[in-house]
Write a structure and sequence with these properties.
The chain has 169 residues and is α+β, with helices and mostly antiparallel strands. It is built from three helices and 13 strands. Helices cover 17% and strands 35% of the residues.
C-alpha cells in the first residue's frame, strides 16, 4: 500500500520530521517541522538567493543528509517584495519558502520559535531579505544576520512510495 501523503500530513524521512505543504504534479512539497540551523542568508550580505551562501549550504551540506534520487528540482521565483523581477528564477533540490509561499501555506507551516529566513529580497539593489518572526509576522533584515533555516524540498512521490513499499517487506 502506498503511504498516500496528503496536504497537512506529517511524516519522517531520514530521521527528520516533515509536513506536506502541497502536492505538485503528484509530488510532495514539504518543509521541515523544526529549524535545521541558524545561518546567515549570505555571509557577504547579498540578498540574491542565486548567489547566497545559504543556498550553497542547503544544496550541499543539507542535501548530503538526503538522497537526491528521492527529490525533484523545484523552481523558485525570486521576485522582490517591491515587485522587482531582476533576480529571475532559480532551480534547486533544497530551498526555503518565498514570502508568497509562506502566505499561501501559512496555516500548514509549523510555528517556529526562531526568526526564519524566506528567499524573498526586500528589493533587488540592497542587502535586505524578508524573514518570518516567531509571531508569524513578515519582516526584513540584513542578509548577513543569523536566522533560522527551515529547508523545503519537493519529494518524488514515485520514489518515496517505492521506499516505503520496500521498508514494509
Amino acid at each position: 500500500t502506498k503511504p498516500n501523503i496528503h496536504i497537512g500530513d506529517h511524516f519522517i524521512y531520514k530521521d527528520m520530521n516533515w509536513v506536506c505543504l502541497d502536492v505538485i504534479d503528484g509530488n510532495y512539497l514539504s518543509i521541515t517541522t523544526s529549524v535545521w540551523k541558524k545561518l546567515p542568508f549570505d555571509v557577504d550580505n547579498r540578498n540574491n538567493w542565486k548567489e547566497s551562501s545559504l543556498r550553497k549550504v542547503l544544496n550541499e551540506e543539507f542535501l548530503d543528509k538526503l538522497d537526491k534520487n528521492y527529490l525533484v528540482t523545484q523552481t523558485s521565483n525570486l521576485i522582490a517584495d517591491n515587485g522587482d523581477k531582476q533576480y529571475g528564477i532559480c532551480n534547486d533540490y533544497v530551498t526555503i519558502l518565498s514570502c508568497d509561499q509562506y502566505r499561501k501555506y501559512r496555516d500548514l507551516v509549523p510555528h517556529y520559535s526562531k526568526w526564519m529566513w524566506t528567499l524573498t529580497p526586500w528589493n533587488c539593489f540592497g542587502n535586505f531579505v524578508r524573514s518570518i518572526l516567531p509571531t508569524d509576522h513578515i519582516t526584513e533584515g540584513n542578509a548577513y544576520y543569523t536566522k533560522g533555516v527551515a529547508p523545503v524540498v519537493l519529494f518524488s512521490s514515485q520514489q518515496l512510495n517505492q521506499l516505503w513499499e520496500n521498508n514494509r517487506k
